Structures are given as C-alpha cells and as structure tokens.
Structure prediction request, 302 residues.
Amino acid sequence: MAISIYPVTPDFAAEVGDVDLAKPLSPEDRDAIKAAFWQYAVLVFPAQGLTSDQHVAFAQVFGPMEPNINSYADEIKKERIDNRVSDVSNLDADNNILPAESRKRQSGLANRLWHTDSSFRHVPALTSLLYSRRVAPIGGHTQFADMRAAWDALPTAMQQRIDGLVVEHSIFHSRATIGFTDYSERERTSLPGALQLLVRTIPESGRRALYLASHAFRIAGMPDDEAHGLIAELMAHATQRQFVHTHRWRQNDLVMWDNRCTMHRGTEYDERRWPRDMHRATVSDIGNTREAAAGHAKHAAA
Ligand code: OGA
Ligand code: MN
Prediction:
C-alpha cells in the first residue's frame, strides 16, 4: 500500500500515514516522502516505533548526519542516548529531571526562541527529525514558521533591500538573549559561528525563503543597531500566525522539518515537573548558503 498524505495547508505541513519508518522504504515510498517534504517543509509521521538505529537510517535517506556537538559539552559526563542523536530532553543520564542549575537545561531553554537548527555552523542543517519518546501532558508543543510564505508576503521594496545580505549567526548569541552566558573558552571555540545568506533559494522547489534565527545578530556592512532593527522586523514578520503551524505532540510522533526554509520553537512546559524525552537526528546541508548560491549562479551562467 502506498503512503497517504494529509496536508494541513496546501503547501505547509502534512501528516503522512501508511508507512512504517522502522523498515527500509521502497523506492516509491522514498520518492513520495521526498516530494512531499520539498512541498510541505514539515512532515508528521504518527505512531512510529523507532530504535535509534532506525531513526538514524531514515534520516540518512536525506543525506549525511551532522556531527553532534553540544554547546554545553563540558558538562556531559555520560551520554544518555545514542551519540549520533541529539538529546533534546530535560533528563539527565539516569533519566531524572535535570536540576535547575543544569547547563543542559538552561541551554535548552533557548529552543523556545524562534530558530533554525545549526545556522551557526558553516554548513548548516538541512533537516532535523525529532522523535518523541515521552511527551509533557501540558504544553511542550513545537511551532513552525513557513519562511517561503514569509518571503512571498514581503513588499517588493523590502525584498530588493535584503536580497543578497549576509548575516552572522552564533549559538552564543541566542543563549545570551535568554541571559545564559556560562560557556568555557573550549566550548566557545568549538562553535565559532558562521556567515549565511539572509535570502536563499531552495533548489528542489525553486522557492525563495528568508533564512533567519535567534542565532542571527549581525549583518555584513551594516551598523549593528540598524541590523538588530532589521532582524527584529523580519523575525516579527515571519512569525505572524498566518505563517505558523503548531504541532501538539503525541508519543512516538516523528516530525521532520526543512531547516532551510522554516523556523521552529518549543512552547513552554513545566520542565522541572514533567519528563519530556525527545531525540533529534540532524542531516547536514550540502554546503554553506553563500557557497551554494555561488554554485547556483555559476550553473545559471553556464
Ligand atoms: C530542536 C528544537 C524544540 C522542541 O529539537 O531542534 O528546537 O519543541 N526542539 O523541543
Ligand atoms: Mn531546534
């Protein structure tokens, strides 16, 4: 039986049924999932029973995995889960709720800011695949913003003003925004930040998208206060409710999103009370956004 696609809106977010991601996919199903992913940018696969091996195997359908570097690496004594997968839980290595002072907990609170994954790396993330093993009974949803629709809705004058701008991203910027700056020199140098295009073109759909995140803090060639104002204006524009889909988790949902053309954020929950156990497999993009665009331009000219 072929997979079933249930769109949430005509081109943003869809649920996918009649597929078991624990098993290798048929070529037809793999192609149908990819086509849906390029169209909808967020896919929800309910009721999946996945081991970490199966989770990773499905992620690798989309490309190579991103090496897992935690900003709070110095705190980790023992990994709680398979180290190919990011631990997005509020749990310690013994599955107890993290204490208030935990650096993992504090760093994780920045997931409540609108962002896209790994824009602070030279080669950012293409897709993240988040799998829920235990959900909070209240809150703890994940929201997604469609950055293609946000680009399409900008006035032409703004599109012309920002096309081609280059933005500096750093994970330590988003953490500083929530007042968390407790990082060692070693942690800081392991994640030095990156330059990314503000407007990108998604090759599979040809659609253009804003590329922004809570990690963005500077624009090349622009005074800092002007850049802050512009970034804040575009973030506010892009996260208006007509561009946003909220996913309310059930246990064993796998949700994947296109980091190139969406932002996401976790909503509040009482993380000192409810265990919330989420595992994320992250696939790397094929290059830095500026190099990818230069490659594109060369192809177009050839
Ligand atoms: C992530 C993330 C938000 C959430 O896993 O990259 O931002 O709701 N998660 O857990
Ligand atoms: Mn994230």
